[in-house]
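Researcher: I'd like a candidate sequence for this fold, 344 residues long. If you have to choose between options at a position, lean toward the conservative one.
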């Protein structure tokens, strides 16, 4: 099998007026008390280690005491906007601010803690990127899970998605027979199909998490994307299929072992039916998003041309070759995969 390889980081794309209007209509575009640029003014960085003492990709950001007091106050307000629509949450404190230079978005991870019950949560502050916002909005529509985020001109705020990064999950369970393996294989097939239908790329194992739920008689799994930078950007069709990444080989092997091609096809069909139902319940929002995407630039001419040609071959429809933006490609691809009519 030939595996996908993404060599270069994608560029950032600005949020234009059409996408901004869409976000305003759906309460995603807000005025924030501080922006991403305010967090960059740290004095130093200290490495963060995991439980076994190994360094992580995160660094603790160190600020001047006066700056830190201001940041803690304003970051608390941002968290309240994200989870409580701005309502005051008592006894909330910002416990840490961490920075990661890995990846496109170079995020800050903020840890907040309730002083009364000691519960804690995280959220992330990143640079705004239009293609990532399209990915988040499409996740809201087509995923079984809702996702909370806020944006403005240069800052993107995202909730923390709970789960174990799949690369860690694979490493922890190497040579171990996990509970309910069949359910896990089924979820990977459905996740693979969902990513392909909505053209979310680069789902290597560290870009999605495993959410584990203890049911009354067994363990249940759900796979959730946590990185949306590669929404409808790459030109190669297989980049949108997690099965073609080397990091996911053990998941592919599990699905191949436990599921016949006929059963796998049935699970793929089930996911498409579920996505179609989600579209029907969010028809206006989806049309608004895709209409905006049709006039936006979130990829290169070369990538658009390549993906158009590859999907034309896949669907046996020449119209893909005539498209000059990713919005048109995604809209027609969704219509064909889900059996819906988005635009008349």
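Model: Candidate sequence:
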């Amino acid at each position: 099998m030939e595996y996908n390889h993404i060599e270069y980081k994608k560029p950032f794309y600005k949020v234009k007026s059409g996408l901004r209007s869409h976000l305003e209509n759906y309460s995603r575009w807000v005025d924030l008390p501080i922006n991403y640029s305010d967090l960059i003014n740290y004095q130093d960085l200290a490495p963060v280690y995991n439980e076994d003492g190994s360094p992580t990709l995160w660094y603790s950001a160190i600020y001047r005491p006066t700056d830190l007091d201001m940041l803690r106050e304003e970051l608390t307000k941002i968290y309240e906007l994200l989870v409580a629509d701005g309502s005051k949450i008592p006894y909330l404190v910002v416990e840490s601010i961490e920075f990661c230079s890995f990846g496109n978005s170079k995020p800050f991870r903020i840890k907040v803690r309730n002083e009364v019950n000691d519960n804690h949560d995280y959220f992330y502050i990143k640079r705004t990127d239009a293609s990532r916002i399209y990915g988040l909005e499409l996740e809201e529509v087509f995923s079984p899970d809702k996702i909370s985020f806020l944006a403005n001109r240069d800052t993107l705020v995202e909730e923390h998605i709970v789960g174990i990064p799949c690369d860690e999950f694979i490493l922890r369970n190497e040579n171990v027979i996990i509970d309910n393996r069949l359910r896990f294989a089924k979820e990977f097939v459905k996740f693979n199909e969902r990513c392909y239908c909505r053209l979310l790329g680069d789902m290597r194992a560290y870009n999605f998490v495993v959410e584990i739920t203890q049911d009354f008689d067994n363990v249940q799994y759900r796979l959730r994307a946590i990185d949306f930078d590669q929404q409808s950007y790459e030109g190669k069709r297989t980049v949108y299929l997690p099965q073609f990444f080397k990091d996911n080989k053990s998941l592919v092997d599990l699905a191949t072992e436990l599921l016949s091609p006929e059963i796998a096809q049935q699970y793929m069909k089930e996911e498409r039916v579920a996505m179609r139902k989600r579209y029907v319940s969010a028809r206006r929002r989806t049309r608004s998003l895709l209409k905006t995407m049709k006039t936006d630039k979130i990829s290169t001419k070369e990538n658009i041309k390549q993906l158009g040609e590859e999907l034309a071959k896949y669907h046996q429809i020449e119209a893909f070759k005539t498209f000059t933006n990713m919005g048109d490609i995604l809209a027609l691809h969704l219509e064909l995969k889900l059996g819906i009519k988005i635009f008349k």
